[in-house]
Design a protein that fits this description.
heterodimer; A: 0% helix; globular; B: 112 residues; mainly beta; six-stranded mixed sheet; four-stranded antiparallel sheet
Chain lengths: 114, 112
């Protein structure tokens, strides 16, 4: 079991560029999430998904898009990168509500926008 | 909306000292409560959890009790080790997908 994997580990973008952060889980979890962690802060929810084809906005969705075409994958898209999107991005997954609430996190992607 | 207030850090302790990290929350309904730990350069790992009032979560010598009357979930350990040095996050899970709301984290450093 690899758990939750994220690629790339590090990335530097120029302002206005686009990129996709990849997230895959092999635990057959229905629920998946994207968070961002700014220096010295807790994590904030960007988007989440309760199953293939279903996504919803979290606390800080502006500037991001997601899709969920399979149970395993939940990519996060940045369309026009801005310096405010410099952060560490974590993907997580969990079983459905009522089957254990804990989320399992990937190792993160450190993104710098200059 | 939901929120979590966590004791400000950093916290520096000597090995074998007693640890308390305070955590209080504001939420509607009946959230689940969690403590996550983050070691340098890594993702978050679940340390312990409690899903209803008066539940006590415990793991690796750490404990926390879900106190609905004081809306608190304080983390304690009787004797810390150097290997406990990390950032600790209190979080609550709520909403249709049990989305997590995090505190700002507490950096713990344990000196030998």
């Amino acid at each position: 079991n690899a758990g939750v994997t994220q690629t790339p580990k590090f990335r530097i973008l120029k302002i206005g560029q686009s990129m996709t952060l990849q997230c895959t889980q092999d635990m057959n979890h229905n629920y998946m999430y994207w968070y961002r962690q700014d220096p010295g802060m807790g994590l904030k929810l960007i988007y989440y998904s309760v199953g293939a084809g279903i996504t919803d906005k979290g606390e800080v969705p502006n500037g991001y898009n997601v899709s969920r075409s399979t149970t395993e994958d939940f990519p996060l898209r940045l369309e026009l990168a801005a310096p405010s999107q410099t952060s560490v991005y974590f993907c997580a997954s969990s079983r459905p509500r009522g089957q254990g609430d804990e989320q399992y996190f990937g190792p993160g992607t450190r993104l710098t926008v200059t | 909306g939901d929120s979590v207030t966590q004791m400000e850090g950093p916290v520096t302790l000597s090995e074998e000292a007693f640890l308390t990290i305070n955590c209080t929350y504001t939420a509607t309904g009946y959230p689940s409560l969690f403590w996550y730990v983050q070691y340098p350069g890594e993702g978050l790992q679940l340390l312990l959890k409690a899903t209803k009032a008066d539940d006590k979560g415990s793991n690796k010598g750490f404990e926390a009790t879900y106190r609905k009357e004081t809306t608190s979930f304080h983390l304690e350990k009787g004797s810390v080790q150097v290997s406990d040095s990390a950032v600790y996050f209190c979080a609550l899970g709520s909403g249709s997908a049990r989305q997590l709301t995090f505190g700002s984290g507490t950096q713990l450093t344990v000196l030998p």
